[in-house]
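Thread: quick sanity check before group meeting

JM: Hey all, I'm pulling together slides for Thursday and realized we never actually wrote out the predicted structure for the chain we discussed last week. Dropping the sequence here so it's in one place. If anyone has concerns about the input, flag it before I start.
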Amino acid sequence: MDLKLPIRIFDELSESVVESTGLLDLASGEIRSVQYEDYDLDALGLPAEDESYEFTSGLLTNGTRDVEFRVDVDVMSGHYSVTASELLELKGRAAKLFTAAPADAAPDVPLRKRRRN
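JM (edit): ok, ran it. Output follows.
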C-alpha cells in the first residue's frame, strides 16, 4: 500500500518557528517533498542546524481535527522522518481522525499546545 498524507511541519527554534509542508509516507515513516514557508534553506541552512533549534513536530489535519506527532531530523542528510514506534502510534491515531464523525458535528475543542520533546 502506497499511502502518503500531506502534513505540516514545525521546526521549533527558541525565538521562532519555521513552518513547512511535506508528504508523510505511512509505510516507511519518511517525509518527502518538504517545502519551507518564508524560509530560505539555501541561505540559512537546515533549521535543525541552527544553534537555537529545540525540536520538530508534525501535524496531520482532517477538517478541524488534528493529530500532532514527533518528527526526527537527520542533520547530515537533511531528511525528515517519523520513528517506527511513533509511526505505529500515529497510524492508529490517524485512523481515528479519518473515521470520526464529521468535524462540524463535534464540539469546538481548541487546538492543544504543541508539545516539547
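AS: nice. Residues 108-113 have pLDDT under 50 and may be disordered. The longest strand covers residues 4-13.
JM: adding both to the slides.
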